[in-house]
Amino acid sequence: MNQDLAGALRAAAPKLRGELESNASLAPISWFRAGGAAELLFTPFDLEDLRHFMSAVQKTRAARDLPILTIGLGSNLLVRDGGVAGIVIRLGRGFMQVTSEPGERVRAGAGAPDVKLALGAAKFGLSGLAFYRGIPGTIGGALRMNAGAYGGETKDVLVEAKALDHAGETKTLDNAAMGFSYRRSSAPDHLIFVEAVFQGREGDAETVRAEMQEITGKRSSTQPVNTHTGGSTFKNPPGQKSWQLIDAAGCRGLRIGNAQVSELHCNFLINHGGATAGEIEALGEEVRRRVREMSGVDLEWEIKRVGVAA
Fold first, then answer.
1. How many Cβ atoms sit within 10 Å of the Cβ of residue 238?
2. Domain limits at 272?
3. Residues 49-89: pLDDT tens digits?
4. Closest CA to 232 of 240, 129, 224
5. Residues 280, 259: Cα–Cα separation, whole Å
6. CATH number, residue 200
7. Number of domains in the chain
């Protein structure tokens, strides 16, 4: 049936240039390397291709009411083993541009890795955006979760974001309309972010690169950057650090199957190879239980969990 639906969408969008797949495994494109398949996975070639696809979705009765999930690098994502119903849109190469704008600003596509924004700003001689070097995700994810690190947050530098709604219409949201708070945005879920403009400050390229190098060194020495992980697992409670609460609860190195709490930084979960998404999530919930029991703090997931259990 999924193949029939994919065929119907292709028929409704004869100029489609992106890749549309049925029952596409999401594990290979998730940093955890775990989880199930997407009912339909679409990787648009560029913005006009995405607009063309969204028009086809609205014209296809069997597709117009399906849930739509947009992903990027899959870094802050845990896909459950039963997979994701509906349509998953993955923003790739056609959404990775980073360009200079007048007024010491930078425009970046929503599929661009955060590090590419930092590197672009350095190239343009702009400071104030180097903190993105320490965030392992894409611009789209940064917009959705007000991503931040090393003293900076998206809310501090965003000028405006451009998105498509499910009808393919363009919407522009300024900083205030994003409704930013700690690690979240209240922007409507149906919007698919496609690009954003950020405000930098005049700076020296070499100084900015040195700042980025310092961030790289800090990450390498304190985080399990070369493992299958999803980044920071839990949000920091007000006035506290999640990793300290997890450590105090005796969870450093805790393991369920091939999923383990990192011994280097215990707010990271690691797939040592072969762990299911169910094991990773169960490990996270066990950490939450132990922290709650030890300190009374109810840790909130920062990693986005999607789909259904096996």
1. 7
2. 225-294
3. 999 999 999 999 999 999 999 999 999 999 999 999 999 99
4. 224
5. 5
6. 3.30.465.10
7. 3
